[in-house]
Amino acid sequence: MKKLLNTLFITQPDVYLSLDGDNIVLLREQEKLGRLPLHNLESIVSFGYTGASPALMGYCAERNISLVFLTNNGRFLARVIGKSKGNVILRKKQYRVSEDEVKSAKIARNFIIGKIFNNKWIIERMTRDHPLRVDVDYFKKISQHLSSIILDVRECEDLERLRGLEGQAATSYNKLFNQMILQQKEDFYFHSRSRRPPLDNVNAMLSFAYTLLANDMAAALESVGLDAYVGFLHRDRPGRVSLALDVMEELRGVYADKFVLSLINKKVVNKEDFIKKENGAVIMTDEARKKFLSAWQNRKQEKITHPYLGEKITWGLVPHAQALLLARYLRDDLDEYPPFLWK
């Protein structure tokens, strides 16, 4: 159980939610795990299938407390709310901002600042931890280049130019990615990003990690009442979770890339875990996906201190924290959207 920004997160499995007076009670096999007053909660997010009592659902609906159900892995299932009050206003604000490219750019640039800052941190961390394994001078040069791009992004109010700056930063960062692979270099290498299809083992894992992260981010956005399909940097496209892709930009490197590198460098995966098809596409075996998913779930349970909130949370709750902060910004509760700046 974790309370964050007036949202209660129930992360333990097999917990049933019930009502006692003005309190939510957490039960597992009739054993009381916790009890919390509901009067200052805005939302309850439960990871699991066990459910909630009709009395609690009715209480929350009457008082505009959203009740969100996700799978144990974080996939969005349902969101129970009462009469449309705050959420319709939030989504209408989201749609209006999305239609205004200047306002969209002012939000989108913070996503990109977060992404570049975190990639710069990864580079600096490599020079500190592995000075004899990487070209320190080249890494430092790229790091300085990323710093200069951040300054340009900070002043940018044009979406097209913002995409160009993000592309420059990504190209520079990708030049170093192969050097960050420290083990199994004959079987794991990175020359450039290939997506549809991935053409090597590293790209196969990156694509899988980005898909999982996008799903987690979309579920987090839906849980706070935002439309995961209407973005600010990524424009509308049928079937694309554009806002999820926006917000996950700042988490790609520090969350997904570092995870993939750790699997390679710790030899959790090896060349036997991949199959190359006739068209050149590389896919992971069923057993490799199981290992990947197990390690991903374990990573989501690791605790960190959120750099903006100053609270200890698990990595798995980071997308939810950022979704809450974005919703607060759109409601004018914050002067600016605070990106996830990890160090």
From TrEMBL:
Its cofactor is Mg(2+); Mn(2+). Keywords: Antiviral defense, DNA-binding, Endonuclease, Hydrolase, Magnesium, Manganese, Metal-binding, Nuclease. It comes from the Bacteria. The keyword Manganese applies. Pfam families: Cas_Cas1 (PF01867). The keyword Transcription does not apply. Mn(2+) binds at E166, H234, E249. Its EC number is 3.1.-.-. Belongs to the CRISPR-associated endonuclease Cas1 family. HAMAP family: Cas1 (MF_01470). CRISPR (clustered regularly interspaced short palindromic repeat), is an adaptive immune system that provides protection against mobile genetic elements (viruses, transposable elements and conjugative plasmids). CRISPR clusters contain spacers, sequences complementary to antecedent mobile elements, and target invading nucleic acids. CRISPR clusters are transcribed and processed into CRISPR RNA (crRNA). Acts as a dsDNA endonuclease. Involved in the integration of spacer DNA into the CRISPR cassette. Homodimer, forms a heterotetramer with a Cas2 homodimer. This is CRISPR-associated endonuclease Cas1. It comes from Aeribacillus alveayuensis.
